[in-house]
Specification:
4 helices; 44% helix; 97 residues
Length: 97
């Protein structure tokens, strides 16, 4: 399967990168590497994850983040990458923007 990251999800990743990089030099790059590896794994495992709020949810391996996606015609579409520590109501609203 192919993986497509929507612009909104790219913005989520960029904001998290800036946050982690501001905490410790190099941590943002590590976050970026690991979250992109998790997203890349969806080309093999897309569609096997539990559905939450109408989206499949992949829990990242190294950071407390979740990748929300749908599978449409053999394409995995990533809609959002959110911090799992956020309020679930915020996450639901974020997914419906």
């Amino acid at each position: 399967m192919k993986v497509r990251i929507l612009q909104e999800a790219e913005k989520d990743i960029e904001e998290a990168f800036v946050f982690f990089e501001s905490r410790d030099k190099g941590l943002g790059a590590y976050f970026l590497d690991t979250i992109l590896a998790d997203i890349d794994s969806l080309s093999w495992y897309g569609g096997i994850h539990r559905q939450v709020f109408g989206y499949h949810r992949l829990i990242a391996k190294r950071f407390p983040f979740a990748v929300y996606y749908k599978v449409v015609n053999d394409v995995v579409i990533v809609y959002a990458v959110t911090d799992c520590r956020r309020n679930p109501t915020w996450i639901r609203q974020h997914l419906t923007r």
